[in-house]
Amino acid sequence: MFSNDRLLGQILLLSLLGACLWVLAPFMTALFWAAVLAFASWPLMQMLTRALKGNASLAAGLLTGGWVFIVAGPLVWLGFNIADYIRAGTELIKNLRVTGLPDAPEWLVDVPMVGDRLLELWQTVDEQGA
């Protein structure tokens, strides 16, 4: 009887471990990335702690702020740039719908093998107002 209770406990514990891993699965990449950053910056953390006279909390805060600045800063900058390009692209599309396409460039016909087709496509798109 005792072994059945023990087996049931082990099965439940294993099930709980599996459920925990299932819940954590979407975050595994971020957790591994955090572990790599923590491991790589450990010497810097020790140096900052010594420089701040043993204040590990302040050193950790400075290190975290530095990582946020290094990692998140360029991503925020990229997001703002993408938003500007999307805004400019929508304005271009609005203007093209009103004024139509400009004349086809002269070099378009000279493109080997597909130049004539490209010119026809350009004119078709311009006539359709797309």
Brief rundown of the structure:
With 130 residues, the chain is mainly α. 80% of the residues lie in helices and 0% in strands.
Element order: H for helix, E for strand:
HHHHH
What general form does the structure show? elongated
Helix content: over 70%
Average pLDDT rating: 91
| Annotation, overall tally of beta strands | 0
Low-confidence stretches: none
The percent range for strand residues is under 5%
Report the major sheet.
none
Q: What is the C-alpha radius of gyration, as a whole number of Å?
A: 30 Å
Q: What is the terminal-to-terminal distance?
A: 79 Å
Number of helices: 5
Structural class comes to: mainly alpha
Structure commentary:
The mean pLDDT is 91. The chain is built from 5 helices and no strands. The chain is an all-alpha fold and 130 residues long. Among the domains are: 1-31; 101-130, no CATH class.
How would you summarize the topology of this molecule?
Blueprint: H1 2-24, H2 28-40, H3 42-51, H4 56-99, H5 115-128
Helix pairs in contact: 3-4
Keywords:
single chain; mainly alpha; 5 helices
